[in-house]
Amino acid sequence: MGILDTVGEIAGAVAAVEATEKVDPDAGLLTKGIAAVAGFKGAGALESLVEKKEDESSEQASDTDNAAPQA
Fold it and tell me: Where does this protein have compositionally biased stretches of type Polar residues (predicted)?
């Protein structure tokens, strides 16, 4: 967590606003604001999901490394 998470969330917001402008060039300020908030929250949720998956895979790897060999 930290500055990289914030940068990722801001990038998500910018990407969402750009996508909104591509879909609707006449989009109003409210529409762009909603897109920015959705992109910000979506990027944060995506980063959390990736971190969760990385933690699960590292736990599984350590479980298989620490497993007693079967004879």
Answer: 59-71
Question: How far apart (Å, rounded) are the C-alpha atoms in residues 18 and 38?
Answer: 13
Host domain of residue 21: 3-52
Total number of residues shown for the chain: 71
Q: How far apart are CA 40 and CA 35, in angstroms?
A: 8
Tokens of 66: 């620490």
- Evaluate whether residue 17 is within a structural domain: yes
In which element (H, E) is residue 9 found? helix 3-23
pLDDT mean for each 10 residues of the chain (71 residues) = 83 94 94 94 88 85 65 59
For the question of whether the overall pTM of this predicted structure is more than 0.90, the answer is: no
C-beta atoms surrounding 22 within 10 Å: 9
